[in-house]
Amino acid sequence: MNLSELDCFKVTLIEKLSLLLFLNSSNVKELKENQNKILLCENLTKEKIIDLIETEEYNNGFKN
After folding, report:
1. Higher pLDDT, 4 or 6
2. pTM score > 0.90 for this model?
3. If you write DSSP's letter for every residue of 1-64 in order, what string do you get?
């Protein structure tokens, strides 16, 4: 994934999702699965990435 070619807002969303997934991974297997999710984000819309972030936040206690 070449982040320099993506719009800066989308890069920020991917970075936030990456951090959440990293923090919420409890073992190497989960880290590898989450790495695959992050690599797929390049092809997702901003709205879909936001949905993934919100889901990850909700599932891990970062409820608004």
Report:
1. 6
2. no
3. --GGGS-HHHHHHHHHHHHHHHHT--SHHHHHHHHHHHHHGGGS-HHHHHHHHHHHHHHTT---
